[in-house]
Amino acid sequence: MNGFLTGVTIFITIIMLIPFYRLVAGPTIFDRMLGAGVIGSKTLVLLTLVGFLYGRADMFIDIVIAYSLLNFIGVIAAAKLLERKGLEP
Predict the structure, then answer these.
(1) Residue 23: its pLDDT value, please?
(2) 29-54 and 57-85 helices cross at what angle (nearest 10)?
(3) How far is CA 38 from CA 17, 41, 45, in A?
């Protein structure tokens, strides 16, 4: 079971490079926000898998909940900032 979880963790880490490209080379600010949001969401799954690998899922779930709240608040703050500046898609 640990081999499977390790493989999935490595796969998700490699998959995180695709939205990282969108974050760096996105033509608009909205593409970059979307890339950052996807990276944040994949990080939640990655932290959960690492928790299962170490056998301390309860501790890592608490970290995931705190990180997801920070991710959500960051996206809302960025959206409010862009709304004030008048940038629309």
Answers:
(1) 87
(2) 170
(3) 11, 5, 11
